[in-house]
Write a structure and sequence with these properties.
The complex is a heterodimer. By secondary structure, chain A is mostly beta strands. Chain A has one domain: Immunoglobulin-like (Sandwich). Helix content of chain A is about 0%, strand content about 50%. The radius of gyration of chain A is 13 Å and the shape is globular. Chain B is about 0% helix and about 60% strand. Chain B has one domain: Sandwich (Immunoglobulin-like). In chain B, the strands form two sheets. In chain B, strands 2, 4, 5, 9, 10 and 11 form a six-stranded mixed beta sheet that branches. In chain B, strand 7 and strand 8 form a beta hairpin. The chains are: A mainly beta, B mainly beta. The interface between A and B is medium-sized, with 20 and 21 residues.
Chain lengths: ~110, ~110
């Protein structure tokens, strides 16, 4: 398994502002992912965070809205930009040690946009 | 497009009352089917990975099975601490995980 931490654990933000969420893993991993879980719903993949190159975004998600960084094999950030109340969700980081292996999830960041 | 459907959406059991959760899927080239448990306000916790039809895995009161079209999570003699949302996900040739909507399980003492 992997020990994954996320900061902040929760936040309340004003419309139009941006929030950066951090994800830290206790050891090097091959793959890091960012998911969104809207209230009462399941998980939706936002993007794959690639080390040393641009993230790979899923349909419906764009870099201008959700810029992602991955400077090394243990750390990634997701920014939620120009927030609106529709962005209120839980944002989850997950990791795979090797491609195609089990994904382990962080504790999540609970975001409320007013 | 990979798809996962879980049933029932919600399930209430009495302590000790065994039952099963269903996960039906369609996927192009199954690489793995995953079960997770999620408690309120927390991230999903990994339970099992199944790779091929006929495979079974067990952990305490939980047993997961897999056929070519569905997976079952059997819960034997559940306890209140088993109350959670159980998520099923598949990984196909695209390597991304596709999640179902989950089954919210409540076990009453």
């Amino acid at each position: 398994s992997a020990v994954i931490s996320q900061k902040p654990s929760r936040d309340i933000c004003q419309r139009g502002t941006s929030l950066t969420i951090q994800c830290q893993v206790d050891s090097q991993v091959t793959m890091m992912f960012w998911y969104r879980q809207q209230p009462g719903q399941s998980l939706t993949l936002i993007a794959t965070a690639n080390q040393g190159s641009e993230a790979t975004y899923e349909s419906g998600f764009v870099i201008d809205k959700f810029p992602i960084s991955r400077p090394n094999l243990t750390f990634s950030t997701l920014t939620v930009s120009n927030m609106s109340p529709e962005d209120s969700s839980i944002y989850l980081c997950s990791v795979e040690r090797g491609a195609g292996e089990t994904q382990y999830f962080g504790p999540g960041t609970r975001l409320l946009v007013l | 497009e990979d798809q996962v459907t879980q049933s029932p959406e919600a399930l209430r059991l009495q302590e000790g009352e065994s039952s099963s959760l269903n996960c039906s899927y369609t996927v192009s080239g199954l690489r793995g089917l995953f079960w997770y448990r999620q408690d309120p306000g927390k991230g999903p916790e990994f339970l099992f990975t199944l790779y091929s039809a006929g495979e079974e895995k067990e952990k305490e009161r939980l047993k997961a099975t897999l056929t070519k079209k569905e997976s079952f999570l059997h819960i034997t003699a559940p306890k209140p601490e088993d109350s959670a949302t159980y998520l099923c996900a598949v990984q196909g040739q695209s390597s991304r995980l596709t999640f179902g909507e989950g089954t919210q399980l409540t076990v009453n003492p």
